[in-house]
Amino acid sequence: MTTDTAPVTKTGNPRALARARKRQSLARFWRTYRAHRSGLWGLGLLILIALIAVFAPALVGSDAQSVTDAPGGPLEGPSGEFPLGTDQFGRSVLALLVYGARVSLTVGLLAAFLCVAIGTVIGIVAGHFRGWYSTVLMRITDWFLVMPTLVLAIALATVMDRSMWTVIIAIGVTTWPTTARLVRAQTLAVESRPYIERSRALGGGHGHIMTRHVLPNVMPLVLAQTTMIISSAILTEATLAFLGLSDPTITSWGGMLQDAREAGAVSAGDWWYLAPPGIAIAVVALAFTLCGRAIEAVLNPKLGARS
Predict the structure, then answer these.
(1) For 79-129, what is each residue's pLDDT tens digit?
(2) Cα gap 33→56, rounded to integer Å
């Protein structure tokens, strides 16, 4: 008597098959992303700035922000010892610029995460549930959308304690409406597909459909939106810091611009105090924008803009 045995293959394991598909998807994504030269430039700049921020103490010393142990004189011009000059306390502007990258990147990333999280949840819920649920959520979204974002952020930062977390919350809770509307539109498109009807017929509940079917399909849009929001979050943080609404004890690029203004660098022509933080803000915002546009073009081939 013979016994028929089915061959065992690696694809018989659902988890192994899922991991293999994810690896193939990431490999395809990277191959397509590499075709966008501007996206590679942006990614390279972000990696460089992130490494500088992480290793700031090793690069410029752990006491670079100290006012009492400042190594130079007030507002010295660029020199061999201080390539970007000093501030009004005699601290190296280059060292402050390196430490400022930590705060600006942290605020930008966390504020963008909070914004995208709020927008994604509201967008999926508003797109999945119909009737008065969607109407109420969309009217709230429209109210936030028509209100000036910067004015709302300033109002929140004014009534709350001055800290980095206040700035993160102020940015995150005022910039989510655009994400919510985009995610809702994508949710409506996803839920019109036949496999959603089959899932409901097989007993899939609201939570199952939203988390297992809708969320994975809107994540590419959320990823592209996140990279675009980070640049605007960094600019908003710099604006709030320049207006004196952030924590004065931490060093950020916007705070450096505020200190330079208070020190009279504008009227005195001390360009080395004003230009570096402004250029750093512009470079980081541009790098995130380039990455965001490249990711959006990869995830939406219909855009077809390669550069």
Answers:
(1) 888 899 998 889 999 999 999 998 888 988 999 999 999 999 999 999 888
(2) 30
Q: Which of 307, 281, 277 is nearest to 294 (CA)?
A: 307
Amino acid (one-letter) located at 284: V
Tell whether pTM > 0.85. Answer: no
Output phi, psi for 289, to 5 deg.
-65, -40
Alpha carbon distances (Å) from 212 to 113, 123, 194, 281? 21, 16, 15, 38
Residue 252 per-residue DSSP state: -
For residues 183 and 136, what is the distance between their CA atoms, to the nearest angstrom? 16
The H helix count followed by the E strand count for the chain is: 14, 0
Q: What per-residue confidence (pLDDT) applies to 125?
A: 92
For 42, the enclosing helix (H) or strand (E) is helix 37-54
Strand partners, 86: 92
Rounded to the nearest 5°, which phi and psi values hold at 92? -70, 125
Long-range contacts made by residues 27-36, C-beta under 8 angstroms, separation at least 24? 29/298, 32/298, 33/294, 33/295, 33/298, 35/306, 36/293, 36/294, 36/297, 36/298, 36/306, 36/307
How many C-beta neighbours within 10 Å does residue 89 have? Answer: 17
Q: Return the bridge partners of 92, or none.
A: 86
Length of the chain: 307
SS3 32: helix
205's tokens: 């509940």
Query: How large is the greatest C-alpha to C-alpha distance in the chain, in angstroms?
Result: 99
Check: CB of residue 113 under 8 Å from CB of residue 223: no
Q: Which tokens is 291 given?
A: 């990455």
